[in-house]
Write a structure and sequence with these properties.
Blueprint: H1 11-23, E1 48-54, E2 59-66, E3 69-76, E4 81-82, E5 86-89, E6 100-106, E7 111-116, E8 121-124, E9 130-131, E10 137-144
Antiparallel strand pairs: 1-2, 2-3, 3-10, 4-9, 5-8, 6-7, 6-10, 7-8
Length: 151
Amino acid sequence: MEKIFKGMDNGPDVINGNFNELSDPKRDVTVNDLTVNGQLTIAPNQKNYSKTITDNNGLQFTINRIGNIVFAFFSGNPTATGSNVLLATVPAGYRPISNNYFIVEGIWDNLMTFLVTTGGQVMTGTHGSSNGGERGVQGSSVWITQDDFPE
């Protein structure tokens, strides 16, 4: 951007050049402070990918991906017991960039841990176990993925 001042010889050309620079789609803009009065729309064309996984261990997973963030919600009555038991597999496109441990709450307030590995395996955690189908569980987790977008 070129400064415009009164009496400059090439004022119309500078104004035209400034407008061309502002309308360039490759223009990089840095905003230090932003106040929004109304609605702010960010990446309006960003796609939401969603998948529901029903496993044979009594759990149902619903996973949503927006950008590189994955939101997972699950519930059910796991039939597997013990630590490090494979419960389900998260498909490519939704897998975390690092192992993701999270706490799971049972209906009767029992707590356990689940793990989602970088390979997508959903397992009972090493310091907890599923409850053998005696009580339902539910939980949610959020992680970052670097997988290619699912198709």
